[in-house]
């Protein structure tokens, strides 16, 4: 099979920014193998209310037969709100639909592509291409870059990045509470008296706690924190790219955001978690 073959894979990334980036990387990796055409249908949903182009520039050097487009009605998750019609439509458009698809390595997805010429996949898990650096694919959109430039201008010679997940992730709140991050900040300050702290969070209270605890050292963003608003998603993307520029990244448990941000910067996040 080649990208010009009748085999077609439609991939719908779900979840927040980090999960979607991983899924897009997987789709890109499959397209690079040249076994089928690959459509990434980017859906503007409550947990990520934006278009791909709001957050990122077009992927560089896309493989033949690969594209990212806005999701159509038939691509989106089925729910009571849309009367479950999208899943019914998919029965006519595809030979198979895989929801929440999760696989390590390329073999499993290639097996499915071989069996089903018209294949639909949705979810927030990687299924190929983990060896492709995130920085090779994802670059900030002009709207994100404008915010990012202002943030980076405030970074010091040694900047520590903190990602504290709260409002929409109970597991992160329970296992990676604010106290762990403040304590790590004190440790960093003892070792690096001139340290600057960049704080990426969806909580005004967390930002206030950092500013109060470390006056004059904290860089953070204001504005909407809601993932259900385009402006909130642009700020979230700016947070992620800013974290990637930090000298060290401390992240929250059960959140891909921290790990992807660190990976963009060619480093690993240290996840703070209660023992």
Tell me about this structure:
The chain has helices spanning 17-33, 52-55, 85-93, 107-115, 134-137, 142-152, 170-175, 178-191, 204-213, 230-244, 256-264; strands at residues 8-13, 37-42, 66-70, 96-99, 118-123, 159-164, 196-201, 218-220, 248-252, 270-272. It has 275 residues and is an alpha/beta fold. The strands form two sheets. Strands 3-2-1-5-4 form a five-stranded parallel beta sheet, with helices on both faces. Helix 4 (107-115) links the parallel strand 4 (96-99) and strand 5. The chain is elongated and about 60 Å long. The protein starts with 7 loop residues before the first strand and ends with a strand.
Furnish the topology, listing elements before pairings.
Layout: E1 8-13, H1 17-33, E2 37-42, H2 52-55, E3 66-70, H3 85-93, E4 96-99, H4 107-115, E5 118-123, H5 134-137, H6 142-152, E6 159-164, H7 170-175, H8 178-191, E7 196-201, H9 204-213, E8 218-220, H10 230-244, E9 248-252, H11 256-264, E10 270-272
Parallel strand pairs: 1-2, 1-5, 2-3, 4-5, 6-7, 6-9, 7-8, 9-10
Helix pairs in contact: 1-11, 6-10, 10-11
Tags for this model:
elongated; five-stranded parallel beta sheet; 11 helices; alpha/beta; 275 residues
